[in-house]
Amino acid sequence: MKRLYTTDIRDADEGEEVALRGWVHEIRDLGGILFLLLRDREGIAQITLVKKKTSEELMNTVRGLSRESVIWVKGKVKQEDKAPMGYEVIPQDIVVLNIAESPLPLDPTEKVRADLDTRLDARFMDTRTRRGMAIFRIRHHMLQATREFLSEEGFIEITTPKIVASATEGGTALFPLSYFDKEAFLNQSPQLFKQLMMAGGFEKVFEIGPIFRAEEHDTRRHLNEATSIDIEQSFVDHNDVMEVLERLVSHVYERVAQDAQRWLDVLGVKLTVPEVPFQRLTYDEALDIASKVEPELCWGDDLTTQSEKTIGAEVGEHYFIVDWPTDAKPYYAMPHEHKPEISKSFDLMHPRMELASGTQRIHQHALLKERIASKGLEPESFEFYLRAFRYGMPPHAGWGLGAERLLMTMLELDNIRECVLFPRDRRRLSP
Ligand code: ATP
Ligand code: MG
């Protein structure tokens, strides 16, 4: 006898013996006939118990089950057009593996919709809903497509430390922790380590891992612990890695549409694969558009949330903002040779928000040291990083793409917290 998921039943033969395991989604007791809806991670199957054909004992077992109890059902497949999947299972045996308490923290049938806080507090039950399950099944396909794409492009997957001695970009947005007798921090980005591996001779690396930002923002697109998709590549400039980025985004949309259509349907999302190349606006052009709504904006300012909205509404699809003022970008951004006040930098934008930031990096030791100092940082605390630039550092470029923002914009979700199993934000540290 095969162990099947509920969705496999359509391929089973009439009269075939099957075993299903899952949760009690619903029980409908019509007296002489009992419908038990069994749910597993893939779908729902109808288990039908008819008084004349089923033992009294089995009928009573089912009558005694609470919703969301865990059961094992052995039975025979029967075609039935009125059942949810076109089939039902006539049980021979039902084993109760675990009884669920009631009332439930939320309703997995989604007849009663729970608010986001309730869902996050009972995440273990939220992912039993079709919506909760769909988001994380698509997240899986998105990350798988990312790994597949970058591996095929020749990028080597690396893992870098999350406990670090100093800030990546200076500033204060760090979570301190005690590391034996020293002070340490949770890393805000793999930036310095992926650059070290350019000196390490890897030429193309990527990492998918956590980043920690101690910013106190409380928005729908910021988390204090997020997942970053990062690449770094040697012997190329910012334009080359922008091409990798736009092709990656397009590939991810395409693969998700191919591999996860049924989960997109659950969310009612119709994906349009973004066409490459994405439009490129210079910072100056972007500022012109934004200034129509915010005349107070000055050259050199970072773009506000409002600016991102204004420009996004005008462009209407994924686009890049390139050539940012050097001072608006981190110290490692390479200035343009003939116009050093502008850097070889870019942000990838979705009409709703920023998705990624990248630059060609400074690979010359003296210039890098100077830029670190000019930001008011201590070059001494960057010695582990600067050292690598003295012994043969190739020119290189890279970017960091927020995995949750990619998922959130792809699925048109309102709040980034929906894209993380156990989000960490200003108020939320548990579960
Ligand atoms: P923003 O200005 O939107 O706060 P940022 O410019 O500070 O973002 P970067 O340091 O450029 O962020 O990080 C690269 C990418 O990582 C961002 O474009 C975003 O997709 C993602 N990211 C950064 N910080 C967060 C966060 N707090 N929550 C979720 N994603 C984040
Ligand atoms: Mg950025």
From TrEMBL:
<keyword id="KW-0479">Metal-binding</keyword>
<keyword id="KW-0067">ATP-binding</keyword>
<dbReference type="InterPro" id="IPR012340">
    <property type="entry name" value="NA-bd_OB-fold"/>
</dbReference>
<feature type="binding site">
    <location>
        <begin position="221"/>
        <end position="223"/>
    </location>
    <ligand>
        <name>ATP</name>
    </ligand>
</feature>
<comment type="function">
    <text>Aspartyl-tRNA synthetase with relaxed tRNA specificity since it is able to aspartylate not only its cognate tRNA(Asp) but also tRNA(Asn). Reaction proceeds in two steps: L-aspartate is first activated by ATP to form Asp-AMP and then transferred to the acceptor end of tRNA(Asp/Asn).</text>
</comment>
<keyword id="KW-0460">Magnesium</keyword>
<dbReference type="InterPro" id="IPR004365">
    <property type="entry name" value="NA-bd_OB_tRNA"/>
</dbReference>
<feature type="region of interest" description="Aspartate">
    <location>
        <begin position="191"/>
        <end position="194"/>
    </location>
</feature>
<keyword id="KW-0436">Ligase</keyword>
<keyword id="KW-0963">Cytoplasm</keyword>
<dbReference type="InterPro" id="IPR045864">
    <property type="entry name" value="aa-tRNA-synth_II/BPL/LPL"/>
</dbReference>
<feature type="binding site">
    <location>
        <position position="357"/>
    </location>
    <ligand>
        <name>L-aspartate</name>
    </ligand>
</feature>
<feature type="binding site">
    <location>
        <begin position="213"/>
        <end position="215"/>
    </location>
    <ligand>
        <name>ATP</name>
    </ligand>
</feature>
<dbReference type="Pfam" id="PF01336">
    <property type="entry name" value="tRNA_anti-codon"/>
</dbReference>
<dbReference type="InterPro" id="IPR004364">
    <property type="entry name" value="Aa-tRNA-synt_II"/>
</dbReference>
<dbReference type="GO" id="GO:0003723">
    <property type="term" value="F:RNA binding"/>
</dbReference>
<dbReference type="GO" id="GO:0005829">
    <property type="term" value="C:cytosol"/>
</dbReference>
<comment type="similarity">
    <text>Belongs to the class-II aminoacyl-tRNA synthetase family. Type 2 subfamily.</text>
</comment>
<dbReference type="Pfam" id="PF00152">
    <property type="entry name" value="tRNA-synt_2"/>
</dbReference>
<feature type="binding site">
    <location>
        <position position="354"/>
    </location>
    <ligand>
        <name>ATP</name>
    </ligand>
</feature>
<dbReference type="GO" id="GO:0050560">
    <property type="term" value="F:aspartate-tRNA(Asn) ligase activity"/>
</dbReference>
<protein>
    <recommendedName>
        <fullName>Aspartate--tRNA(Asp/Asn) ligase</fullName>
        <ecNumber>6.1.1.23</ecNumber>
    </recommendedName>
</protein>
<dbReference type="GO" id="GO:0017101">
    <property type="term" value="C:aminoacyl-tRNA synthetase multienzyme complex"/>
</dbReference>
<comment type="subunit">
    <text>Homodimer.</text>
</comment>
<keyword id="KW-0030">Aminoacyl-tRNA synthetase</keyword>
<dbReference type="InterPro" id="IPR002312">
    <property type="entry name" value="Asp/Asn-tRNA-synth_IIb"/>
</dbReference>
<feature type="binding site">
    <location>
        <position position="357"/>
    </location>
    <ligand>
        <name>Mg(2+) 2</name>
    </ligand>
</feature>
<feature type="binding site">
    <location>
        <position position="361"/>
    </location>
    <ligand>
        <name>L-aspartate</name>
    </ligand>
</feature>
<feature type="site" description="Important for tRNA non-discrimination">
    <location>
        <position position="84"/>
    </location>
</feature>
<keyword id="KW-0547">Nucleotide-binding</keyword>
<dbReference type="GO" id="GO:0005524">
    <property type="term" value="F:ATP binding"/>
</dbReference>
<feature type="binding site">
    <location>
        <position position="354"/>
    </location>
    <ligand>
        <name>Mg(2+) 2</name>
    </ligand>
</feature>
<dbReference type="InterPro" id="IPR004523">
    <property type="entry name" value="Asp-tRNA_synthase_2"/>
</dbReference>
<dbReference type="GO" id="GO:0006422">
    <property type="term" value="P:aspartyl-tRNA aminoacylation"/>
</dbReference>
<feature type="binding site">
    <location>
        <position position="213"/>
    </location>
    <ligand>
        <name>L-aspartate</name>
    </ligand>
</feature>
<dbReference type="InterPro" id="IPR006195">
    <property type="entry name" value="aa-tRNA-synth_II"/>
</dbReference>
<feature type="binding site">
    <location>
        <position position="169"/>
    </location>
    <ligand>
        <name>L-aspartate</name>
    </ligand>
</feature>
<dbReference type="GO" id="GO:0000287">
    <property type="term" value="F:magnesium ion binding"/>
</dbReference>
<dbReference type="GO" id="GO:0004815">
    <property type="term" value="F:aspartate-tRNA ligase activity"/>
</dbReference>
<feature type="domain" description="Aminoacyl-transfer RNA synthetases class-II family profile">
    <location>
        <begin position="136"/>
        <end position="431"/>
    </location>
</feature>
<feature type="binding site">
    <location>
        <position position="354"/>
    </location>
    <ligand>
        <name>Mg(2+) 3</name>
    </ligand>
</feature>
<keyword id="KW-0648">Protein biosynthesis</keyword>
